Amino acid sequence: MAATSLLPTVTASKAIETSFGDVVAAAVESLQAMCNDPELQQAAAGALQNIKNLRHLALVYKPATAAGLPLFQRLAAEFNLSCSSASTTDPNNDSSSSSSSSSSSSSSSDVHQPAGPSAADEQHICEIAQLLQLHGGASWDLNVLQLAERYGQQLLLPKVVLAIYDNLDICSRLRYDRQQLWANLVAAESLYYVCNPYHNALHAADVAVSVFGIVQRDAAKLKPTPEEKAAMVYAAAVHDMLHTGNSNSLLKHVAHPCVQQAGAAGAAEFLSAAAAAALMQQPGMNFVPAAAAADFMSLVQDIILGTDMAVHKASLAGAAGNHRQRLISVVHFADVANAAKPLAICKPWGGRINGEFSSEAALWLALGVPPPAHLTSSVQAAQIGFITNIVQPMLKEMAELVPHTAALALADCAANVQYYQAQQ
């Protein structure tokens, strides 16, 4: 898919915009009532935050104020983007969002002057690179949540990706602009909703670490080129940008203005792919040499769209005999790999995704719709079901492609299922 096809002008109709506003307004009233129930209070509060995310994201796609503006310019205004290494902001904070009208008066050069990592940032990057090496290039037990405790959550995503690129010698080998890569990744981190327990920049960093481990451990079978490794790691880093903590089914149900843009693609994955294309087209962030940029972004976009669970079975089936699809499947697995890692990693991520599930379940109830069963399951039941029905079968299908990873991950899957069964 060409990059330009993922940079549409806003075409959502006024009717869709009004429908979305009416639906979520009614849901807010129900959720506010739920907040008075001690048993529902936490989930209802999470659902209200989800609605805040949905409303904020709608500003990017609002026809009345954003029509005709380039996607990057809309994102820069609503997410207060900056390349400064000290300026990653929380888009959920009302004070951090500019009005859409302000985006029309600010030029891209005002918002994005490339700024490389500081000396302190470089020290962190060096230490993370060493940790990756100490884990034998496998990084299967490198805990990103512990990295966040050690180095802070802010700017961890760009630090992790640069550490991986440095280990793979990507920038010098492929002549990527490391300063512009940093600027791109700082902006990318700003496009994650930090309030999401699971779908946030820490998850993106975790997926990037998993991809690095797989391509190192199973390079002999995968045979990825340096360019493909670079695209896989970058795609992992940006694959959930703009994720609101809600499923594609819910986005469609509430008639979110972004859904019409996505067409047949999953809305959440389409938004991430579109944002990645917008960042890469921005001067000061297009770190890949011009001659290689189109191929790089084509693979990045295909990988991001391939993380949609709706195409899970088709993705695995298409991997047989198709090198490109194999690479896509590897990142797709890395996206869910925390469930197939040691319990110290699996358990906190399981709690995080269950938190998002509970919030979405409350939102479905507020919309007057029974939530899908997996959203109301216990952490134990949800993790057992996910590992046994999704992760283990995926690993068995991929065992020939990534034999060393499959052996490690299947052993961890079995141990994790045993743990959760004992907790039921």
TrEMBL record:
Stretches for region Disordered: 86-118
Cofactor, free-text remark: Binds 2 divalent metal cations per subunit. Site 1 may preferentially bind zinc ions, while site 2 has a preference for magnesium and/or manganese ions.
**PROSITE patterns membership:** PDEASE_I_1 (PS00126), PDEASE_I_2 (PS51845)
Residue spans with biased composition (Low complexity)?
A: 95-109
Essential cofactor(s): a divalent metal cation
Give its E.C. classification number: 3.1.4.-
The main enzyme category here is hydrolase
Q: Which ranges carry the PDEase domain? A: 120-424
Q: Which UniProt keywords apply?
A: Hydrolase, Metal-binding
* Family, as annotated: Belongs to the cyclic nucleotide phosphodiesterase family.
Q: Which PANTHER family match?
A: CYCLIC NUCLEOTIDE PHOSPHODIESTERASE
Official protein name in the record: Phosphodiesterase
Organism from which the protein derives: Tetradesmus obliquus
Q: What is the lineage of its organism?
A: Eukaryota, Viridiplantae, Chlorophyta, core chlorophytes, Chlorophyceae
